Amino acid sequence: MSSKILIIGAGGQIGSELTTKLREIYGQSNVIASDINTRNLELVNSGPFEIIDAKNFNAIKDCCKNYEIDTVYLMAALLSATGEKYPMEAWDLNMNSLFHVLNLAKGGTIKKVYWPSSIAVFGPTTPKEFTPQHTICEPTTVYGITKQVGERWCEYYHNKYGVDVRSLRYPGIISHKTMPGGGTTDYAVEIYHEAIKHGKYECFLSENTSLPMMFMDDAIKATIDLMQASAEDLTIRSSYNLSAISFTPKNIYESIKSRIPEFEITYQPDFRQAIANSWPSSIDDTIARHDWSWQHSFDLDAMTDTMLNELKKKYQ
Ligand code: SER
What angle do CA 148, 154, 155 make, to 5 degrees? Predict the structure, then answer.
């Protein structure tokens, strides 16, 4: 199982925890972290680190050659809310970084690619409940468009050029280590921080907005399980539906309030409400559960316990 891995966008919410886990599994020196800046000091100091702009093909290629990389996890992206503010930047980063990595795989420089997609590929015309793998995808956000098009290209590179690319449609991911940035599901992380720090939270989504979500440990496990699955078992080369829990701001508020009775919430929906309204509230991930035995572990209350315990330690 020897592998030399490059993570692009390793300083981000998912990238940072993925790096830690991959270093545990494959050994520190076999996992090269990269990002456009060195802000995440823990990451920079815990193993090989390179400054790489995901839009720079030569920088990625040189790094892959220098370290004899065989597997790339491309975690750099502009998310849904930021993408609405900077549409061309989102298109430029999300699409070109993917082409760079797919082309390196096509050319034989690397052997395997992981690229995250999202529930943002779905849109207002998609069935909202228990959204199937194969369904109407008419995304209304720039981010969603980049992910949908990216999925098509992943499948195309697999079918035409035999590229071993694997992907998951992540729901909103909740974690206590690195903050998410610029997503519509970010409220579900902010709420825990604010509950501990200030005992109150103003939510930018309305109380009954139900969205698919997942605790970080489950998301990391799903990612690594998919990458370790044998190629013959995989029937989806665009991106797998992936699901764990669905909840509303009111549900998460109640889960926190049962542990912090004085916690208060107010609702002040902004432009992100329209994005959330266009997404499903729950996802059918039967194919992932079948193909590579995907199973999640954390429900809302288990996640709340872990989040509050960890954040209490952090802020003390
Ligand atoms: N968490 C992402 C977002 O809100 C969805 O993939 O943009």
Answer: 95
CATH number of 5-117+136-168+215-241: 3.40.50.720
Helix (H) or strand (E) holding 58: helix 57-67
Which residue among 26, 67, 86, 143 is the active-site one? 143
Q: Is 170 in the pocket of ligand 1 (CB under 6 A)?
A: yes
| Architecture field, domain 173-213+244-315 | Alpha-Beta Complex (3.90)
Task: Point out the ligand 1 atom lying closest to the alpha carbon of residue 119.
Answer: 6
Please calculate the CA angle 228-9-170 and round it to the nearest 5 degrees.
55
Query: Could you report the per-residue pLDDT of 32-80, keeping only the tens digit for each?
Result: 999 999 998 888 999 999 999 999 999 999 999 999 999 999 999 999 9
Nearest to 272 by CA among 31, 7, 82, 17: 82
- Residue 32 burial (C-beta neighbours within 10 Å; 0-12, 13-18, 19+): buried
Ligand 1 pocket mutation pick from 86, 186, 272, 278 by most atoms within 8 angstroms of CB: 186
CA angle 34, 39, 41 (to 5 degrees): 85
In sequence order, what are the residues at sequence separation of 6 or more whose Cβ sits closer than 8 angstroms to the Cβ of residue 95? Answer: 146, 149, 150
Q: Which two tokens stand for residue 90?
A: 């989102």
What is the residue extent of each domain of the chain? 5-117+136-168+215-241, 173-213+244-315
Task: Look at residue 256 in the predicted model and tell me its pLDDT.
Answer: 98
143 has catalytic annotation: yes
CA quadruple 176, 17, 276, 142: dihedral sign: positive
